Amino acid sequence: QSALTQPASVSGSPGQSITISCTGTSSDVGGYNYVSWYQQHPGKAPKLMIYEVSNRPSGVSNRFSGSKSGNTASLTISGLQAEDEADYYCSSYTSSRYVFGTGTKVTVL
Amino acid sequence: QVQLVQSGSELKKPGASVKVSCKASGYTFTSYAMNWVRQAPGQGLEWMGWINTNTGNPTYAQGFTGRFVFSLDTSVSTAYLQISSLKAEDTAVYYCAREGYSGYVQYYFDYWGQGTLVTVSS
Questions:
Q1: Which of B22, B62, B78, B121 is deepest in the core (most CB within 10 A)?
Q2: Closest partner residue to B95 among A45, A57, A103, by Cβ?
Q3: What is the spatial distance between Cα A107 and Cα B36, in angstroms, rounded to a whole number?
Q4: Do residues B118 and B7 lie in contact, with contact meaning Cβ atoms separated by under 8 Å?
């Protein structure tokens, strides 16, 4: 199972919106509505930000939103803040259960 | 509150074995599957597999068969990851992660342990 493809880095200024893509195949992202997104700060464990494509867990800011079109899922961060600087990973259910994306480093300029 | 607390960092020599623990609290341990995720230094997340905490049945991802063993001790709500015949390339942070469940399996990881660094070096 190959990792889902994410851009290595995305950057934006405070207050701007950025979007991170996560591209897979019809066997993972495109085949199921089980895409989730995780935020990871340096030296910390990942934190669930979005599940089932577009649902936010309790306590996650509504500045984070998710969507999917075909084999590509996206995470959008609106009103970018300094604390959003972190690595972000997508994950999808697959026939072998799970696959993660390659990860995207978000930099707040 | 839900917590997953993992055992501390380990330094092992090549060829040795290591056992990482993940103690769960704040919920019914056997109601939620437990997954294991590896993160090599400076690298991304890699799903290693999962264990059914109700039956004890483990499932391993490709690349994690043979030297990797998932186990449970439900009496103390703890999951274990054992790695044998350690190699330098096993150096990584290993996370346990609870799989979501709300009457049906929800395919995401809602709680994570703090991670255990395993360093393999002679």
A1: B22
A2: A45
A3: 28
A4: no
**B10 and chain A: CB distance < 8 Å anywhere?**
no
* Closest residue of chain A to B110, computed from CA coordinates: A48
CB A73 within 8 A of CB A53: yes
Strand order in the sheet with B3-6: B3-6, B18-25, B78-83, B68-73
- Per CB-CB distance under 8 Å, the chain B contacts of A1 are 61-62
